[in-house]
Design brief:
Number of domains of chain A: 2
CATH topology of the largest domain in chain A: Rossmann fold
Oligomer: homodimer
Shape of chain A: globular
Low-confidence stretches of chain A: none
Radius of gyration of chain A: 27 Å
CATH superfamily of the largest domain in chain A: HUPs
Largest sheet of chain A: 6 strands, mixed
Strand order of the largest sheet of chain A: 5-4-3-2-1-14
Distance between the termini of chain A: 70 Å
């Protein structure tokens, strides 16, 4: 039955994982808000009462489940005519089930479990209630409206994929679909809201705010005024990040803000090197937690240029964050003396000392981390920020106990070329224009930790690795096209269109990428939570690869070689 | 049909995750070994060709699947009459499926997929092939033999649980079960082998070696000579760890050994404080990778006692590992000067500087890590070892970028009281007796980082936290009994039997435990791989809890309080 007079409410709220009181109050406030609106239904997100991603926390805190049942019973008592759909965890014969409680007139009327979608009748209208990916199994139309409580992260191509699925499903079943998403950050997860209704033709009739709480009141049968154009997923790598930058910015800022708010943290301290990574982190932090809560510290070493120091200070002034300079030369020298003495003693027992090592470079990065963690240990509610980016994480080009250490890694799912684009976007779109000095964006990235023996100047990351444009296209192809080494070797990169490189050069870079990626796995396992923003990430909450798998032969071998090796066995 | 003349082979091999060539050669060697033995079957573990726990590595390395299909086809060509069952990854319409290839007479005869167990006929005998937990769904006997290729870790109570399940199933279906396990370490996972056959009465007729590769040739219908006594899972906490210590030792040594071998690493460097944690780590390392590959460094600071320095040196001599001493006083002083100057500048902008902080304590721990990582950066194939134990990890009583940093955390799943028992066991059972100085076992643990204001002596961990016996029982009850705060408060602890403590004291300790555990979550997320040994661990590959969930109310509240809070909302 279609009834254009009826109304439903979509309560897109931002919950705190495990904080039942906070979440329950938010739910009750929304129920009270619509008390006189004569709604059929008010719908809350999946696991609204407990928060999502509680995962196995329940093993350590079984009380959450018992408590959430007490809370849902008490919330039920205040309901009147309007039915509320509230995500919670049900307990059936000591099993915990992701569920939705259907409550009205002072009590729980029914409980729907995940993987067992059911229809309910409210004022003559049949609603099908689904949780998470339950909607995937809907094959025929047997309800007037489909409700999909589904938590989806803000990530590249998410909107495209979601629209294709929901729009096609609504059209196929000729049934409107209410898609209700979470909003808010949860460690590395940043949910973008944007709950919406797809009408029976598959067009979007109404859409909630993104990256904000919202309470949308509407009729579920209303037809869209415009046809929904389903955008295409990008099929090839491109340096034109513009269409994705606002979303990227909001995803990161929300992720940072909620990490601080939900853990009760307030302040951040980070090293400001005058380079791109720490610069973008500082801008995001200032916007997420307020400039007064951010302390940037320039820690020049012997290779730090005057330009870097100046850029760091100008940035801090432009952002209004606190800033000071603390040279680390003396710390590095003392450590170096201590180590040189030690190394000679170790060398008496062990061979294989590197003739050229990264030891000195890393001591600088680690001394800086000692300073930053000192500040976060000394001042209340303060954490250190890990400033590693995604390109360098893939290459293991970050220092353990150095720049990759901290409470959260805000940009560890943003590649370098995207960071450059984001820096330009920030300069153009933030209220204070051009906060980032142009020279930060123009200079070639490098940690100023070592001298390039070829040029006598400080080593640039691209010279040690490969051009970022090339590297980021490898990452993009692995994550989005599932391509292997040979497929990449045999198809043209964007970088090749603009630069004349030999097949040998390309092979060398690809080999270097795969070799470095293999040895970077162990760094990924101890990277702090990275806010997920791309379609795939190396955040350990969604990607795990055994460190012992570093011997994968990324090139493969021919059947003839295989035969030979089998004979030898 | 039962046929007591037929024979099968159980090839319990140790594979390297992702290294197809290595694994394939091992498979082929075993196939060749039994060529003339006239077996019906030779059975390899689940995913024998690719290694287990490849997880989503395949997203980054899709070539593994294509290559493993090439390999399985080539391996098939060398087979003769004896059928081989080989775990591999099948690809069906671009989906990857955990599968077993049944090969003989030069070709693949059939492929069995996970969740779709099937019967095969070999020389008149019907074998049911199951993968992983498929056996759970077997309800009736419709084969002569059940084969269960199932990877299970070495962990407390595993044997008990496994025997109950398999023994009962074999008896219920009156069908023998061949249980084939992995052996070997894989990051935090340590598989113990011990493949076995349960006869149709549920008794164990034969058992392969544990923690070693093995090739067992036997008749599947043979009846056990003895009845299997199913041991009971421990129902209460006990300080008597004796029955579990040999297994614990072997699990850890195998985990360390294979981490090094499979990553190509060779050497380990660790700080030797003279305390229990680093001492036990040093023994395990010496046994796993050889004493010559271990370097212990004593890094005394101003609070380090002469006894600690002596204990470290004696231990090193007893183990035959390399040893040297490097005082860190100068590093700590330089850092301290640098920081005091910085703190005064930060204080001009920020309030909430702690009057008593852990900053100085942590600088000592972090300076030591800078030294250790310096050595592992300077010498080839060397890593630093994280020496944190499980009790302290639960309490967040370990320093980020300090003692909890390294490539692997060997004892981060072993509680302190169990470590004491393990130390005594090592002194008694290793070839070189009493390698661990008695004073290490007798002294109360403490990191010698701070002075206890109450005693004027160096702070002991138990005084800062609570008695380890009490703490470890909380951990045990959470992990094994799923108990909550109130259940613990209201039942007697072992510690209470031997010590007279007030209810207030117990409440204080329990509250401290839960509060500290909440704030320790973020440390768990960056702890290096911990070798799993207990029935539950906080290794991030199996336990994840959002850092933003630190506000869980571990005590819960009454329905009346809930009502009041809902009214206020």
């Amino acid at each position: 039955m279609e009834d254009l007079t009826r109304k439903v409410g979509l309560a897109q709220i931002n919950t705190i994982c495990g904080n039942l009181e906070y979440n329950a109050k938010k739910i009750v406030q929304n129920i009270k808000k619509v008390e006189t609106d004569n709604l059929d239904l008010i719908i809350f997100p999946e696991l609204a009462l407990t928060g999502v991603n509680l995962d196995n926390a329940i093993c350590r805190h079984p009380i959450i489940v018992d408590e959430n049942i007490k809370w849902i019973n008490e919330i039920a008592k205040i309901t009147q005519k309007t039915t509320a759909l509230i995500g919670f965890i049900d307990k059936v014969e000591s099993k915990y089930i992701n569920s939705i409680a259907i409550i009205s007139n002072g009590k729980i009327q029914k409980i729907i479990h995940k993987s067992q979608p059911e229809n309910i009748q409210i004022n003559g209208i049949t609603y099908k209630i689904t949780i998470g990916d339950d909607y995937c199994n809907l094959l025929q139309a047997d309800s007037d409206v489909i409700i999909s409580c589904n938590s989806t992260l803000s990530r590249t191509y998410k909107e495209q994929k979601l629209q294709t699925i929901y729009s096609n499903l609504a059209k196929k079943l000729s049934t409107p679909i209410i898609y209700l998403n979470q909003v808010g950050g949860n460690d590395g997860y940043s949910y973008d809201g944007g709950s919406k209704i797809y009408d029976k033709n598959g067009n979007i009739s109404i859409c909630a705010k993104t990256f904000e709480e919202d309470l949308l009141i509407t009729n579920p049968f209303e037809l869209a005024k415009n046809k929904t154009i389903i955008p295409q997923v990008q099929t090839a790598f491109s340096l034109d990040y513009e269409p994705d930058l606002e979303r990227t910015y909001k995803t990161l800022v929300q992720g940072i803000r909620d990490y601080f708010q939900k853990t009760g943290l307030q302040r951040a301290v980070l090293g400001l090197s005058g380079g791109l990574d720490s610069t973008v982190c500082a801008v995001l932090l200032a916007d997420a937690i307020g400039a007064d809560n951010v302390f940037g510290i320039s820690m020049p070493s012997k290779l730090t240029s005057q330009e870097s120091k100046t850029d760091a200070e100008i940035l801090a002034n432009n952002l209004g964050i606190h800033f000071t300079e603390t040279p680390i030369k003396e710390m590095v020298n003392t450590t170096d003396n201590c180590l040189q003495n030690l190394f000679s003693k170790v060398e008496e027992k062990w061979d294989c000392r590197y003739s050229q090592s990264y030891t000195m470079d890393n001591i600088q990065a680690r001394s800086r981390a000692v300073i930053l963690f000192g500040v976060s240990n000394e001042f209340a509610s303060c954490i250190t920020i890990a400033t590693s980016d995604k390109s360098e994480s893939y290459m293991g080009y970050a220092t353990i106990n150095g720049d990759m250490s901290g409470g959260i890694a805000p940009i560890a799912d943003v590649t370098k070329t995207k960071l450059f684009a984001l820096a330009r976007w920030l300069n153009k779109n933030r209220e204070v224009k051009n906060a980032i000095p142009e020279s930060v964006i123009l200079k070639r990235p490098g940690a100023e930790l070592a001298i390039d023996p070829n040029t006598g100047k400080t080593l640039c990351a691209e010279d040690a690795l490969m051009p970022y444009e090339f590297m980021d296209e490898i990452i993009w192809r692995i994550e989005n096209k599932n391509e292997n080494y040979h497929q990449m070797l045999n198809s043209e990169f964007v970088y090749e269109k603009n630069n004349n490189i030999s097949k040998e050069q390309k092979t060398e870079w690809l080999d270097k990428f795969y070799r470095r990626m293999s040895f970077a796995i162990y760094k990924w396992s101890i990277l702090p939570p990275a806010i997920i923003v791309d379609s795939h990430s190396i955040n350990k909450c969604e990607y795990t690869q055994p460190i012992t798998s570093s011997q994968i032969n990324y090139k493969g071998i021919s059947p003839e070689e295989i035969q030979r090796k089998i004979c030898e066995a």
